[in-house]
Design a protein that fits this description.
Elements lengths: L1 E4 L13 H21 L2 E9 L6 E10 L20 E5 L3 H12 L4 E4 L1
Parallel strand pairs: 1-4, 2-5
Antiparallel strand pairs: 2-3, 3-4
Length: 115
Amino acid sequence: PFLVVSDRAFVRGVSPPTPAEWQEICSLCSAIVKQWEGRQAVLLTDFEGEGVGVEGELVSAAFQRTLALDARSLRPDLSGTPSRDMGLLLDFRCDAAVALVRRIMESDAVCKVIW
């Protein structure tokens, strides 16, 4: 599951949050990232955009904790335990989401696996 992080309509079928819901989403996101940092998590990371590579622009980022790699050695973890952590789907049109992407990407406490 992913938490949609946007202060406006971003995913079809998901209503934009009310101001109170938006505050709760921001608090929850901060807590999730803090938890990832405390666990020195490995995050599967993806960026999507329009016309990327030909002067296009990024539209979204997604982060999801994975247990498939050992956080210390980055070797495959064959235990087969799937992560149940909520992932984050962030809208780059939203300033708070962009700030959260920056926080995650600048954090040395989490490893980002990007494809």
